[in-house]
Amino acid sequence: MGDASFGTAYGVLIKELTLLARTVFLLDGKGDAQSIQLAQELTNEPDDEAVLSALKKWIGGGEEK
Predict the structure, then answer these.
(1) Burial label, 18 (beta-carbon count in 10 A; 0-12, 13-18, 19+)
(2) Would you say residue 9 lies in a domain?
């Protein structure tokens, strides 16, 4: 198996399965997370609408376009 340092550092490692949770991170230019969307179940994907909404709010300075 590969190195689990990324999953451990970002809190998305599922240790029992040695898998990463499905996650979308929106990072600013400094690498700081502005939004994190985590799928609630391993078989699901993160909520695309929530990701797009967070991105629009972040880019628009807090207002959804």
Answers:
(1) exposed
(2) no
> Residue 64: pLDDT above 60?
no
Domain count, the chain: 1
pLDDT in tens, 24-53: 999 988 988 888 999 988 899 999 999 999
Relative to beta strand 13-14, strand 23-27 is: unpaired
Cβ–Cβ under 8 Å, residues 33 and 16: no
**Taking Cα atoms as reference points, which of 39, 42, 41, 61 lies closest to residue 51?**
39
Identify the domain containing residue 56 by its residue range: 21-65
Residue 39 pLDDT: 92
Task: Please check whether residue 40 lies inside any domain of the structure.
Answer: yes
